[in-house]
Amino acid sequence: MRMLVLGGTSMVGRAVAAAGVAAGYEVVCGARGESGAVPAGARLVPVDRDGADPYAPLADERFDAVFDMATMSYPWVSDALRALAGRAAHWTFVSSANVYADTASKGQDTDAPLVEPRYDAGPAEPSADPAVYGAVKVASERAVLDAFGSRAFVVRPGLIVGPDDRSDRFGYWPARFERGGRALVPDVPEQPIQYVDVRDLADWLLLAARERIAGVYDAVGPARPLPELLREIAGVLNAQVELVPRGPAELFAAGINPWAGPRSLPMWLPDSHLGLAARAHDRAARAGLAHRPLADTVRAALAREHELGGLVRSRIAGLTPEEETTALA
Length: 329
Ligand SMILES: NC(=O)c1ccc[n+]([C@@H]2O[C@H](COP(=O)([O-])OP(=O)(O)OC[C@H]3O[C@@H](n4cnc5c(N)ncnc54)[C@H](OP(=O)(O)O)[C@@H]3O)[C@@H](O)[C@H]2O)c1
Description:
This protein is an alpha/beta fold. It is 33% helix and 19% strand. The chain has 10 helices and 15 strands. The strands form 5 sheets. The protein has a 7-stranded parallel β-sheet with strand order 3-2-1-4-5-6-11, sandwiched between helices. The chain is globular. NADP nicotinamide-adenine-dinucleotide phosphate is lined by residues 7-13, 31-35, 47-50, 69-71, 94, 96, 124, 126, 157, 159-160, 167.
């Protein structure tokens, strides 16, 4: 198979490219090369999607499969389709669970209502505003489905974890538990959480391209209670840690944020967003999305934490030791 990854220098695209190389495919990555290097064995073709005629370096090339990682710009997607659709047999677009209008209700499937699309140009980087991000993704999905119809594969991941994760969310917990002592955790027995390991997602995207699977899927694993997941992470590491639960009201009063970002307890969701982590996962499972054991994901996340500077470092998500100590006091 001859495949093109629009991306390939960062988390999801890089994992797809690496899986393609491992499978023995010819892998071309179209990106600037600013986010990182492509995996060994893949070829980087310089593509700047904000530049003039970005796909000229790929002129005359044909692909069995294209994987588009466009984050937050409808023109990126429509321009790529215009330039490449006639030379590709199968097209995968990595969308997001942020396309859904109802973020609160649990158990929704891919036929749930979507936010209104936005076709006006978005910035290249994912917006801080999830509503804008979701609206651009809806517009992008429509363009892919219009252009490729029964050869389009659109996947909507929620939380993606694993190697090269730059969000600092999942990795906070293995790093925190490995450090030991008293660890502040959200007291949310009813909160579901679901995730997909980027390596499992990449394997599935490759399988879908190979087998010409089409349609729209939520790329998520089974939902489970967050407290159970956190206990299991600590268990995998055999961590000498005491989990100290505090309820949402107390956490909010202490100025601690849910989900991500500074001064947060990552993966804790407010009630208004529980639906984002409790989507139906069985369609994707039937279409071949398989999930590795949690222990593998946890050990990979901890290894990355050590690579990035150890168990205490400047992070973009989570609590500093001082913030946690103050909140526990
Ligand atoms: N990470 C998550 O948890 C998550 C969750 C749900 C959905 N998603 C979706 O999954 C997809 C991949 O996510 P990710 O986290 O792997 O994305 P990412 O880290 O933002 O990488 C995006 C890719 O876009 C390329 N890029 C950026 N600016 C470019 C430009 N001007 N021209 C050409 N290429 C450019 C980057 O390469 P260069 O900088 O080298 O050019 C990089 O390879 C995205 O569509 C995202 O919305 C991610």
